[in-house]
Amino acid sequence: MNHDAKPLLSARDLAVRFNAPGGRVARAVDGVDIDLAPGEILALAGESGCGKTTLARTLLGLERPSEGTVAFGGSPLRYSTRALKAYRRAVQLVLQDPSGALNPRHTVYDAVAEGLRIHGIHDNERERVADALSRAGLRPPEKFFLTYPHELSGGQRQRVVIAGALVLEPQVIIADEPVASLDASVRGEILALLLRLRDELGLAAIVVTHDLGLAWNIADRIAVMYLGRIVEEGPVDRVLTEPRHPYTQALVSVLPNSPLPEPVVLTGEPPDATAVPGGCRFHPRCQVLAGGLAEQAGVDDECRRSDVALGTDHIACHYARTMSTATT
Q1: 172 within domain boundaries
Q2: Are 68 and 15 in contact (CB under 8 A)?
Q3: Which helix (H) or strand (E) element contains residue 31?
Q4: Which of 45, 123, 172, 187 could bond 91 through an S-S bridge, CB–CB 3.0 to 4.6 Å?
Q5: End of a domain among 190, 224, 258?
Q6: Which residues form the domain of 273?
Q7: How does DSSP assign 209-241, residue by residue?
Q8: C-alpha to C-alpha distance for 159 and 134, rounded to whole angstroms
Q9: 215-271 pLDDT per residue, tens
Q10: Kind and range of the H or E run holding 24
Q11: How far apart are CA 85 and CA 239, in angstroms?
Q12: Which residue, 26, 7, 3, 34, is CA-closest to 309?
């Protein structure tokens, strides 16, 4: 992985809005910049409803942004049928639920070969399918060709889904909660597989997860989302051992062996993308503001009134910026 390389996949000023009942508008993604380097694994983390799945779908071209751009290899993504088909060969999705992703009437061979057939790739189909299954850890691959999904374990089904992505030789995999439906004993195997694919094939990956422990085990970098925005971003070991945004601190505080002294219990209502508060969008639930620390630093009014976006310091927090300035 080369952090200095040009981004393979990136987004600038990305916004995705949906109409909601009652004439309201949900700001599911609300001004996101993101970069994925070649060979990098980026974890996209946050609570349910924070916008991470919508962001992933937009990066895949499955949702069209209301504003902003997605770029692959430096070229803006185009939304014609032909352009999207070519793009989806290079950027593949791995779904959360392998049972839902696999047609129960298709054999493993047909499930993996489906991508090749959609893209009109007819050369060496059998060899390509066997190679993809083998790379996904299903060996010998021929043993699984005529097997049906119901005959496989959950971990084996997830490996078939991964093989279906690998068969097209993508440069990027976007995995949405790739181990959420699996037993704990199998989770480690699938995470180890994703790491091995990165090392062997140079694959880059975005892993969508609410599980910071998973991010710690697999990612190079992490982007923490809250209410449609990335609020903190950086190397995973730094963010999870020295979290600076109060929201990240709350998430990290409940991890086993957390570096923070005690758990942070967030107050207030869970985020609602149709009612984004003014000021810092986290301020109604912020323990730093509620505890008086923001007032001591002289930024409590800013927290309530002034919006704050991710800056060159990779954090979206008035208080954290003030404290980092005070210590430099």
Answers
A1: yes
A2: yes
A3: strand 24-36
A4: 172
A5: 224
A6: 248-326
A7: ES-HHHHHHH-SEEEEEETTEEEEEEEHHHHHH
A8: 10
A9: 999 999 999 999 999 999 999 999 999 999 999 999 999 999 999 999 998 887 777
A10: strand 24-36
A11: 36
A12: 34
